[in-house]
Each structure stands twice: as structure tokens, then as C-alpha cells.
Amino acid sequence: MGPEKTGTAKTPKFTDVLSRAGKSMALSLPIILSLLFFFGWMQIFLPRKVLLYLFRGQALSDTLTGALLGSIFTGNAANSYIIGGELLQRGVSLFAVAAFMTAWVTVGITQLPAEVAFLGRRFAVARNCISLLLSVMVAVAAVWTWRMF
User: Fold this and answer.
1) Residues whose CB falls within 8 Å of the CB of residue 43, separated by 6 or more in sequence, listed in order
2) Which of 11, 44, 103, 106 has the most CB atoms within 10 Å of its CB?
3) What is the pLDDT of residue 124?
4) Nearest Cα to 106, choosing from 138, 140, 84?
């Protein structure tokens, strides 16, 4: 008996990897197009004046507003990076954007009914409240850390 090889995996061919990457890009195309549509809509229906009215440049109120809006408009992390960059370019404070992005990913008010159905009301509400509080704390910590460096 010869020595057995363990832990050796077959390396995929470059064409296989390229094919999988192409399929992945094709699957993400609707998301990319919907984001482009969303930003176009945002430019038209949400002018900079409205954003500056919602986010007044005050750390506490901007952070809370960003966390609340992120809780309502939930989504995945990749989209939050793009939206966060767009908000920063339009003059929204880093406190608000950091809170928005964190709450966008961790809090899910729109998904709360489904979460209650599967996990129970007490757990779902507690998880969302804790996540909302933590999104505010993470935003403050992120901005303070950013300013240190």
C-alpha cells in the first residue's frame, strides 16, 4: 500500500473559473441596473436641499436620522457602500452615513413581520432594537476612529 494523499483538491481550470465569474456577473446585473435606476431617481426626487434638511450637520440628530432611515430601507452590504458614497458626495455627514450603512444591514423594520413569524415577537423586536442602538454606537465609534487618523 502506498501513502494516501489527503487534502488534495483538484484545481479548477481557468475556463471554469472564467465561466463561473461570467455567470456571477450576469446574476448581479439586475442589482447593478436597479442601483443605477435608484440613483437616477434619487437625483430627481431627492434633491440636495432635502438631504441637507434631513441631515443638518449635527452629530447626534444626523446619526439618529441615518440609523432610522437605514432601518426602514434595508438591504445588503454591497449596496450600502454605493449608497453611502453617494450620500457623502451629496454633503451628508459621515455620522449619518455610517449609521445609515450599519442599520441598513443589521436592522430590518420592513422584514420584521417575517422575522416575528419565524423567530417570535420578543426575539425579533429585541434584536432589532439592539441592532438599532448598536448602529448608532458603531457610527460614532467609526467617525471618532476616522478622525483620529
Assistant:
1) none
2) 103
3) 95
4) 138
Spatial CB neighbours of 124, under 8 Å, sequence gap ≥ 6: 112, 115, 116
Q: Quickly tell me which residue has 472564467 as its cell.
A: 18
Closest alpha carbon to 96 in 51, 128, 130, 42: 51
Percent of the chain with pLDDT over 70: 92
pLDDT of residue 3: 56
* Contact of 90 with 106, CB cutoff 8 Å: no
Q: Which grid cell sits at 67?
A: 440609523
Cell digits of residue 74: 434595508
Of 53, 79, 80, 73, nearest to 138 (Cα)? 80
Structural domain spans, the chain: 14-45, 48-148
How far apart are alpha carbons 16 and 99 in whole angstroms? 40
Cell 417570535: give the residue.
Answer: 120
Global confidence as pTM: 0.72
**Can you tell me whether residue 46 is helix, strand or coil?**
coil
CB 107 within 8 A of CB 139: no
